[in-house]
Amino acid sequence: VNAIAPTGGTRMTEGLIPASVFELLKPELVSPLVVYLGSEQCQDSGALFEVGGGWIGKVRWERSLGACFDPQAGFSPEDVAAQWQTIGDFDGAAHPADSTEALKEMMANLQGYLREVH
Question: Which positions, given as ranges, span the membrane (predicted)?
């Protein structure tokens, strides 16, 4: 299963973008991607694609390495603020390919505390 994030010239976007651009954002320019994604030829699954105006791009996740907090002791908004720079630092960012990889850092943090309990 794949997903698309389309951009198209529709009644909802009419008047929000210049008319010359609106004319090039025909919704039917999204259809070729939709048909391809549903074909046997397409081997992608679990992907997100942005599409519009004759352009298609595949989106990937990028996540900072984040900051760890003690889930047993809890943490405050002030603790979050103190780690905000680290939370938003994309140096050495991770690029998880799926939700399992996306949860890896959180689960590693939890495992440290689960070992302490048992």
Answer: none
